[in-house]
Amino acid sequence: VNNMSPTVLTGTLRTEKDATFKQMVSIDNPALGSSSFNTGALVVAGGVGIGQNLNVAGNSTFGGNANFLGIVNFSNTTQSTANNNGAVIIGGGLGLAKNLNMGGDLNINTNKFNVASATGNTLIGGTLGVTGATNLSNTLTVAGTTVVNNTSALNGQVTINANVGGGDNSYNAYPLRVQGSDQGIAIKLNASTPDNSNNFITFFNGSGAAVGRIEGETTAEHTSQPQFIFDESILIATEVAAGVNVGLAAIPIVVGGLIASTGPCGACLAMAAADLALATANLIAFHVFELMDIGVTYESGSADYAEWLERVVPEEQVNAGDIVGVYGGKISKYTGNAKQFMVISTKPAMLGNMPAKGSENLYSKVAFMGQVPVKVRGNVYVGDYILPSGLNDGVGMAVSPDKITADQYRQIVGISWSGSILGGINLVNMAIGLNGNNLADLAFKQEKKISELDKKLAALEDRFLAFEKGPSYINDKDQPKILAPKANIPSDKANTRDGDGEYVMPSELDETVMKEAITYLKNQFEGQKISLKNNPGLLKLLTDATFQAEVIKKTQDNYKITYQSYMDIQSKK
């Protein structure tokens, strides 16, 4: 065909060889749509090679694999709201060798897994299974239950912020629960020797203020506590007194220049030696049990130890600060026939004798020892004794130490450590269970009064006898008595028991005394059927030679210090 003239073929065109078209080939019959691989305006049984762009105005179906070596760009902006709509719909799986970056949210099965594009928050509606390591560089929020079947290492701070309800006896009321093992919670600090500056657990109130702690404690810190010093001083004083008694039992006793005994009392000496051994054993035991388990101390803003005690009348209303009478272990605000008086605790640091579950409403928290607020009517001064008012209303009254009477002694509830001059009923801070020394002072004052009365009575009796017998009675009283020879006492200071004690009191406890004391201690425990296995400190003392030597050495050193202090006091008399 020459001259670029059109060619019209009314029949089929068949080419047995290749055909080359230098210009556009247009198949312009729109009625020839394609519904399969062998229908349409253009049907190619073999492959198709296209050197440039391919533009398809309608749908395209690939029956086999499609391999795109270049970038594939889908310009359609249709939003996806489900897995069967959107600009790209994939009926099968999707394999990605590299990153997937999305400008919108990622939703799987509509709402089972959601990653919000604006915040990055991820919502998982089902179980999350992770077989490898998981690194989280920010907050992880889990609305449902999370189960971790293996060890979890949390290298940062962990905060449990759970809003769960329930009473203090409900297991489900606690945000943190540890279960499924023979042991509970282990806390390990970096400090090799935790002291008072290292807290294992600290308790805070809702305002963030610390209200109590379980802190480390060293031997030096423990032995500097007032309670330890008091307990140790009592035991050492007992041991010193026992040492004095050993010496006293070994010499004649002189009273007013007269020999009361003419030689050592064997039975007295044996008893005094036994007392010394027991006192030494008690001191050893004290050091064992007080010092071997040094580690932690419990500290609280609350100031009393309390126990649950049942009310005599379950319906009776008792409140914190009320004074109650005790009747066979039960309490009531009626104090008329009570032999003991106590106070309802406001906030105990320790609470014992927990009642059976479900019966708490029959009990009240009663302070046994420490400081406790108490209701008192009228003016109160520091140091006053607090007694029940006698009105059976839970309120107390204050009595001055100078005005208290003997029949009021047994009614003493405690001693006021704060005052009030406002009148009416007020809360004052009272020490309870700590007034032993004060009662001793009261007894001493009473004894002093009785002694003064005895002296006055004796003087009055002498006056009557002098009046009755005449002047010779007074002259006879003043005549010197003939005294027996004095005993051979090594020192003139030995004319009194104080002098004897100063002379014969051992300056140190030798190994023999210490060994005998330990043997005595062992025999005492075995005699009382106390198992050494249940007392690890005592078992260690009796079986570990190295530990036993350390305890003996410490006890001997403490005794030397106390002996020297005792001698210094005696030298100043």
Write up what this structure looks like.
It is elongated and about 175 Å long. Strand 6 (254-255) and strand 7 form a beta hairpin. Mean pLDDT is 74; it is low at 247-271 and 477-504. 27% of the residues lie in helices and 15% in strands. It is of the alpha+beta class. Strands 14-16-15-17-18 form a 5-stranded mixed β-barrel. Strands 1-2-3 form a 3-stranded antiparallel sheet, with no helix packed on it. Strands 4-5-8 form a 3-stranded antiparallel sheet, with no helix packed on it.
Oligomeric state of shown chains = single chain
Low-confidence stretches: 247-271, 477-504
Strand content: 15-25%
The neighbouring-strand order within the major sheet is: 14-16-15-17-18
Shape estimate: elongated
H and E string: EEEEEHHEEHEEEEEEEEEEEHHHHHH
Secondary structure category: alpha+beta
The largest β sheet comes out as: 5 strands, mixed, barrel
Please give the share of residues in helix. Answer: 25-40%
> How many strand elements?
18
Mean pLDDT: 74
The helix tally amounts to 9
Compute the CA-based radius of gyration. Answer: 48 Å
Amino-to-carboxy terminus distance: 151 Å
